[in-house]
What does this fold into?
Amino acid sequence: MPLSQPGQGGQDVTPHLALLVDTDATLSLAEVQQADAQGKFVPTTGNTVSLAFGFSRAAYWLRLELENPQAHAVAQKLDLQNSRISSATLYSPSATGSYQPVVTGADLPFETRAHDNRNFVFPVEVAAQSRQVHYLRVSSTIGLNVPLILWDPVDFEHYERHDYMVQSWYFGIATAMIVFNLLLFVALRDRTYLMYVAFVCMVVNTARVVPKAHRGLMLLLVWHAVAPLFYWGDLQTIAPLAIVLFLLSALALLSLIVWGVLKRYRMAYFFLGAFGILSIGTLLTVLRALGWVPTNVLTVDGLQLGSALEMLLLAFALADRYYLLRREKLNMQRTLLSTQRTLLETLQASERTLTERVAERTAQLQQANEKLEALSMMDSLTGIANRRQWDLVLHREWSKLSRTGQPLALVMMDVDRFKRFNDQYGHQAGDECLRAVAQALASVCRASDMVARYGGEEFVLIAPASDLVNATRLAQRALDAVQALQIPHVHSDWGVVTLSAGVAALVPGPGQSPQALLAAADSGLYKAKAQGRNRVEFTTLGDAV
It folds into this structure.
C-alpha cells in the first residue's frame, strides 16, 4: 500500500489488508509470521473503511504492507477508529529487523496508548525505499469492527483538531442539557426531568392512558438501572443480549411516541422527531457493530449525531413544556380572578334577594307543615277526621259553647256485627265497608258538625249548638244513610250493614267535663245494641253517671 501524502487526507487501509483468524487466540507473532510465509493470510474482500467480525472470542491478525519509494524515511499515523476494542497490538519492524509491539486496548490503561487520542493511534515510520510488513492483532469482548485509516501526520493533526471540536460541541450540548434539566428540576421539583424513560412516560401519561404498556416500560427502566452490574461478568456473553434489549427499548419508546402522535399529544411530536433521529443513529451504530452495514461517517458517528440532534429537540420540548406550564398557570390565575369577580357579583346579588328567598322558603315550609298537620288529623283508611282531631275539636267546642251557653251533642256509632262481617267477607271488604260508612255519615252532617273515626268500627259525631232532640234526629239520619247503602251482611237481621247509635247532649258549664258527655253517649250506644241494634238511644247525663 502506498503511503499517505500531505494534503491527501486519510487513506482507507481495508482493501490492502490480509487476514488470519486465530480461533483460540493463542498464536504468537512467530507463529503468525510462519503462517504468513505459508500463505495462510487471505486478502480482505471488503471495500469499505471497516472490517466487521461481529461477536467472537477469536483473535484476528491483520497484515499490512507499506511501501515507501522516497529517498527518506516517512512517518505515518495508523488510526484504529474504534475506541471500544478490548485489545489491539501493532507489531512494526524496527531498524534492527525485529518487531516492536505497541500493546493497548480498551481493557488497558489510557497510558498504554502511543498517542493521546480517544481512539487507538499508532505512529509508524517506513524506512526510505523499502517495503515493510506490519501485523495488527485485535480482539474484543463486544462487537468487533476494525476501521483503519492511514494518515500523514500533518493531515492527522488537522483531522484530530476538527474531531475534538465536534466532540466538544457534542459534550457541550450534553452538558447544557444536563444543566438545563437540573434547573428545570430545581424550578419545577419534577424528578422525571432527571430520567429519560420516566420523562417520556410522564409526558405521554402512560400510567393512566396505557397502564399495561406503562408496566412494561417500568421494567425496561429497571433493566437499564441494573444492567451495569452485569458488566462485571462475561461481557462477551452479555453484550449481544444488551444490544437486543437496547433495540427493544428503542422500539418500545418509539412505538409509545408514535402512539402519542396518533392521539395528538403535543409533546409527542417533539419526541417523535427527537427519538426518530436518535433511533436512526442507534440503528446504524448497532448494525455496524453486527457487521451488517459498512463503516462510514453515518454509521461511525450516527449515534452521537442522532443523540446531539435529539438533545436539541428535547431542549425545545422541555422549553415548550415549561412554556405550557407557565401559560397554564397564568390561565389559572386569570380564571381565578374572573371567578372571584363573578363570586363577588353573585354574593351581592344573593344578598339583595336573600330576604325574599328566606321568606319564600319560610312560607313553603309553613304550607308543608300545615299539610303535614292536616294529614296527621286525618284517618288514613276512611279519609275523615281521626281521633286526635276529634279530641281537639271537642275541647275547642266545649270551651266556646261554655262561654255562649249553647248545648253540645255527641253521637257514638258502631257498625253492627262488624267482626262477623270481616270473618265472612274478609278484611279488604271490611275496609271498603268502613270507607262507605264514613262517607255516608259525612253526607248527613252540617257544616258545623264533624264526624270522626273513633277506633275500629266506631264513629263519633260532634254537633255544636244541637240539643238532644236535634242530635237524635241527626243520628237517625245517619243510620238511615248507612242502611241505604245496601251493603250485604248475611249475619245482620236486616241482611245489610247497619249502625247502632247513642246520643247525649248538655250545655257545658262548671262541674261538667267532655269525658262525662262522651260516657253518656257511649252508654246510649250500649243501650241500642242491647235493644236489638240498628237503632238510636239517648242517655241523659244523670243516667250516664
